[in-house]
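Deliverable D2.4 — example input (structure tokens):
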């Protein structure tokens, strides 16, 4: 078969795909009307996850992760024909939170920038947006304290989680590394690139910014400045990439959580996040943690944060393997409430199975 014949075949296949996409959009509209009659939410992330898992499991020569990316955009576009999904993220445009939001909800969602983590939570609490997405921990630098504090203090629940593979880039208009006098970035990326900066830019001043995107804006007006940010930020703001993947660990993931007014239904492969405090006294924490062990529950993560109610008083945040509807998790929560002055359920949600590369 000649090259022209092959191209004509691809054109015919593309025409068929386009016709089927149009047909799918029509059926999606029928689904929206049926949901409206039944007074059900228009967006069902659990159904979306099931569809993506089913299609990825049937992949052949087309890569499974690419199938997920393609169909996430298809579903996002179909949803936007009904009413664009509104999502809040820590802005401005070009942050890794922006990249995570696009990776999870697709390009057709309606995105709202917030200046702070509290702003993201407030936007969802006031129902100005349906969901919010925030980073909660990094595989190199650990917890993101302000996001954790906002989660514990607020009334929203974790709906889903996403592990985003973060590639830190050095963006600058400087002629070379020796011309860089200042490096701007958020404290998390600066920490993730600590060794690289010490080796290659030891004489440069490190300047903390409120976000990677604001760091890029600072570097744009500073002839001797550079920013550590994403390739997405480079594309959006026009600041060239001088070096890619400058993070100290080759595998660098940030865990993001999606927050909303409800958590997720049980899937059989879930996590539950809880916050609790213990009474001051010898062995109090050990006794609280023993409850999970006695119920056969795996703790995948635990950390402490100041309670902000009185000095040297702490709240513990824990991720459990299991769903709040699982019998052993439900029993452990009941037992915990019987021995702890404060216990707060922060959400049950499907465990993230895949790491997504930032765009």
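Example output (designed residues):
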């Amino acid at each position: 078969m000649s090259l022209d014949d092959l191209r004509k075949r691809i054109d015919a296949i593309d025409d068929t795909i386009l016709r089927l996409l149009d047909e799918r959009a029509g059926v999606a509209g029928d689904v929206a009307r049926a949901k409206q009659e039944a007074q059900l939410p228009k967006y069902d992330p659990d159904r979306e996850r099931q569809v993506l898992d089913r299609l990825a499991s049937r992949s052949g020569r087309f890569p499974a992760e690419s199938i997920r990316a393609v169909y996430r955009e298809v579903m996002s576009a179909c949803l936007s024909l009904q009413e664009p999904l509104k999502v809040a993220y820590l802005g401005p445009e070009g942050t890794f939170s922006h990249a995570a939001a696009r990776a999870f909800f697709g390009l057709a969602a309606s995105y709202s920038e917030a200046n702070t983590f509290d702003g993201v939570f407030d936007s969802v609490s006031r129902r100005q947006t349906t969901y919010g997405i925030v980073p909660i921990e990094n595989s190199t630098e650990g917890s993101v304290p302000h996001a954790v504090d906002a989660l514990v203090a607020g009334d929203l629940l974790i709906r889903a989680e996403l592990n985003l593979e973060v590639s830190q880039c050095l963006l600058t208009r400087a002629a070379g590394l020796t011309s860089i006098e200042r490096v701007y970035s958020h404290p998390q990326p600066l920490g993730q690139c600590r060794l690289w900066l010490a080796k290659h830019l030891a004489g440069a001043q490190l300047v903390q910014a409120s976000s990677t995107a604001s760091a890029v804006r600072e570097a744009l007006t500073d002839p001797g400045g550079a920013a550590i940010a994403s390739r997405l930020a480079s594309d959006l703001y026009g600041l060239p990439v001088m070096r890619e993947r400058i993070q100290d660990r080759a595998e660098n993931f940030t865990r993001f959580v999606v927050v909303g007014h409800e958590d997720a239904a049980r899937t059989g492969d879930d996590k539950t996040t809880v916050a609790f405090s213990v009474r001051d006294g010898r062995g109090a924490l050990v006794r609280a943690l023993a409850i999970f062990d006695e119920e056969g529950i795996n703790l995948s993560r635990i950390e402490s944060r100041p309670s902000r109610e009185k000095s040297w008083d702490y709240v513990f945040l824990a991720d459990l393997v299991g769903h709040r509807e699982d019998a052993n998790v439900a029993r452990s929560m009941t037992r915990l409430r019987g021995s702890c002055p404060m216990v707060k359920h922060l959400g049950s949600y499907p465990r993230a199975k895949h790491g997504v590369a930032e765009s």
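The chain has a mean pLDDT of 88.
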